[in-house]
């Protein structure tokens, strides 16, 4: 399924865009077309946001080259939904989709609150998650916002329905590509596999086939970090991930012996997140 049409061609001014690090935005793949003197808006607006109680990252992406400034939000948390709504308003964005990488067990999604506060916003989650949502996604689907898009990659193993969202491929898409890995791949680690139909062998295969095959410079943005990391790359994780650099048998042993307590909010979060935006906010 293609959730909306994929990109039209950019105009000549935009093709001369160059990177602007201060805005946190990314430029274009081909350096030859980044050398023009014309200053133009880089297309992608990107914000990494943090919720400290569950150490969750939420990501806001928008196409500012498009007149509507369409945006998507990945993995919002209920506790920070007000902040996210305010940011969307302040930046003059039109939020189209609230995308969840999976049914989280440690926090309640902000999807319900966002749908209430911003009419017209649609919730999205994988079909394999079994959760309720406006849009059910399958591997290979593209979610478009303006001329930019996210591609859906199926990365089960932490939960049955985990997906990774990867920014598009092509000259008009952000470079390097960015992968929003949810809990499948964390920086130097990975999501646990001891509940919600978790499966270490599946997770190992998912990460190796769907994430580690992306170009080495691809940026990794996880749903959580507990040590203060914010971003990594495929190349870095291929070298330094403490679990996924092992062979599959050793990986399975590591995962069997993590000894982590269950998330404190699990009994509230899982049933609530299975409704993914259709629950009455608590
Ligand atoms: N202490 C937290 C939960 C911490 C936790 O279990 N995190 C999960 C992701 S959220 S389900 C995980 O997979 N961690 C992997 C790891 O190696 O830490 C709480 O009580 O909420």
Automatic annotation (TrEMBL):
Catalytic function, reaction form: S-sulfanylglutathione + O2 + H2O = sulfite + glutathione + 2 H(+)
GO molecular function list: metal ion binding; sulfur dioxygenase activity
SUPFAM superfamilies reported for this sequence: Metallo-hydrolase/oxidoreductase
Alphabetical keyword list: Acetylation, Dioxygenase, Iron, Metal-binding, Mitochondrion, Oxidoreductase, Transit peptide
Gene3D superfamilies: Ribonuclease Z/Hydroxyacylglutathione hydrolase-like (3.60.15.10)
Enzyme class label: oxidoreductase
Cofactors required: Fe(2+)
Source superkingdom: Eukaryota
One Pfam assignment: Lactamase_B
Principal localisation: mitochondrion
Compartment annotation: Mitochondrion
CDD domains found in the cross-reference section: POD-like_MBL-fold
GO BP: any one term: glutathione metabolic process
EC code(s) of this entry: 1.13.11.18
Keyword Methyltransferase: no
Cellular component GO terms held in the UniProt record: mitochondrion
Signal sequence, renumbered to the chain: none
Family classification: Belongs to the metallo-beta-lactamase superfamily. Glyoxalase II family.
Protein name in UniProt: persulfide dioxygenase
Name of the encoding gene: LOC112292492
């Amino acid at each position: 399924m293609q959730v909306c049409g994929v990109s039209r061609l950019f105009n000549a001014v935009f093709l001369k865009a160059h990177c602007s690090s201060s805005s946190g935005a990314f430029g274009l793949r081909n350096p030859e077309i980044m050398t023009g003197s014309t200053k133009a808006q880089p297309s992608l607006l990107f914000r990494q946001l943090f919720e400290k109680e569950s150490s969750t990252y939420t990501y806001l992406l928008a196409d500012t080259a498009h007149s509507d400034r369409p945006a998507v939000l990945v993995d919002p948390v209920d506790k920070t939904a007000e902040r996210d709504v305010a940011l969307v308003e302040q930046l003059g964005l039109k939020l189209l989709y609230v995308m969840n990488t999976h049914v989280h067990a440690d926090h309640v999604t902000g999807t319900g609150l966002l749908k209430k506060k911003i009419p017209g916003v649609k919730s999205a989650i994988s079909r394999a998650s079994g959760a309720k949502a406006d849009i059910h996604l399958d591997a290979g689907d593209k979610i478009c916002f303006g001329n930019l898009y996210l591609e859906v990659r199926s990365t089960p193993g932490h939960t049955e329905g985990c997906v990774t969202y990867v920014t598009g491929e092509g000259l008009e898409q952000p470079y390097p590509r960015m992968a929003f890995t949810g809990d499948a791949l964390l920086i130097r680690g990975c999501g646990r596999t001891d509940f919600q139909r978790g499966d270490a062998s599946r997770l190992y295969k998912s990460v190796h086939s769907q994430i580690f095959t992306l170009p080495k410079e691809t940026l990794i943005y996880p749903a959580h970090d507990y040590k203060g990391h914010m971003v990594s790359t495929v190349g870095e994780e291929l070298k330094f991930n403490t679990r996924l650099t092992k062979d599959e048998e050793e990986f399975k042993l590591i995962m069997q012996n993590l000894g982590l307590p269950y998330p404190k909010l699990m009994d509230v979060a899982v049933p609530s997140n299975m409704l993914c935006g259709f629950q009455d906010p608590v």
